[in-house]
Design goal:
Shape: globular
Helix content: 25-40%
Number of strands: 8
Length: 355
Amino acid sequence: MNRIDERDAMFSRMELKPGSKEYDDYYKRNPEKKDRDDELRNKPQLLGEGTMTYHPVNSTLPNSVFRFLGDIKQFSEGPVADRKVELTPEAITKKLKLVAKYFGATDVGITEIKDEFLYSYRGRRAEVYGDEVNLNHKYAIVYTMEMDKDMVNRAPFMEQCLEVTKAYLDGAIIGMMLTYFLNDLGYEARNHMDGNYLMVAPLVAESAGLGQIGRAGLLITKESGQRVRIGSVSTNLELVPDEPKDMGIPEFCEICAKCVKTCPGKAIPGTPREELDGKLRWQVSQENCYDRWRSLGTDCGICLSACPFSQGVDSELFDQMKNDDEAKKKILRQHEEQYGIRKFIKEPFDIMKDE
């Protein structure tokens, strides 16, 4: 599997300033993307005035979270203590998982970092644009942050967007604490947080046994479905890795396709998986997805809510699903009987109400 170039990600492309050397470099190499990107660039900003969900007060709150995250990402790597505490891999692995959960992680796993998990080149910020990604850390501590079901079920309105930003904030804080803790024990560590990733989050999370990547390109977990965000900390400390789990989720996605039916941007493919870069998977149109974000003013999130696993599935039935097509059909049937195409809450969340 080839590495992903972060410069090709929509967030990276949308940060390119017309007339800048980064803008000129990218579209010289990718001229076929320029017209569509310029069209998107000229739309109202995410969370900005002119979008469907814009509110002068409510839209400011998620923006404030992102601004704070931008301010703290400089602390993602720190000085390592001179003294090194001798640790056994088994004991410190257990300790780190407990620490991550204490600070708010829902689930935690460990994976050995493979080359294909890393971006090839950075692209998110002008100061690191085009830098080749090299990471000499062997292991990643990967964790999920569950998002509130009722907030996600208000997608595509501001409540869902706020909940996503809160999860990124929680993930950043957990990552900072793990990074500082490891540094103080005498080991290198790096917090891979919003806007400052060197690793592709769903890939490391799947490898760490936290779930499987579904049709929408997002991690799906047993307990929370797609209602999670992912954080990770890489380190040179020797740890005990977890194994990836075959839960039968991609096979369920083959027959479900609720995210396809509900996606307002028609960004999620309704076709079977195909082999891409040596792996059987689906390819989401990030341009179509992001187009809807800029129109809505939020990060949409309808696919998060539409996923049956996001609403909760009986544990025994979930475990049967891997080898039982009837169990898959039963999960889908129960979801449709209870929620229809998807659950949607119209009532605004308290802090989003106008007095």
